[in-house]
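User: For my dataset I need records formatted as: sequence, then structure tokens, nothing else. Please produce one.
Assistant:
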Amino acid sequence: MTTPQGTIAARHVVIATNGYTGGFAPWLRRRVIPIGSYIIATELLPSELMARLMPRGRVVSDTRKLVYYYRPSPDRRRILFGGRVAYKETDPRVSAPRLQAELARIFPELRETRVTHSWVGFVAYTFDTLPHVGVHDGLHYAMGYCGSGVSLASYFGHRLGQQILGLKEGRTALDGLDFQTRPLYHGDPWFLGASIAWYRFRDRLNV
């Protein structure tokens, strides 16, 4: 591999770019769908309010098609609130008010609560909604965690490392699965806007 800083030679190459898989790996790019994941953090909240809104201090996620997920911060002073509120938006100043409106809809007491932090990242979905680990054209890959990458990326990264070392412990139940794509898809999810609108409509009807 040649870079502006020099040439790199490696016996094994791992691609683990997930929602940021670009044109350097076109075969993989056609098989993962980058979807924005947006999160806000509220200002510091009174302890009695936190105790009333989230008495058990657990992580919460709903069952809609376009899910929202939230939890208390580790010090139980803020609520961290996330969801899919845009197609390709990368400016947290745009996505934050949308999340804040949803937060206030779930917790009306937080209607006047300020947001102090807002950030965004891209997760990678797959067409069969399964993560994939394998080898293609001599390149190892692990990606497509469908929103559960915090835990699954560490697990599959560990297993992939074991596979490269030739250890039998590296085998997983997902080895060798057909990594699906779709006609006319080349990494830019042109269909996401319509899909989000459709699922939002279904969520409103509760179907």
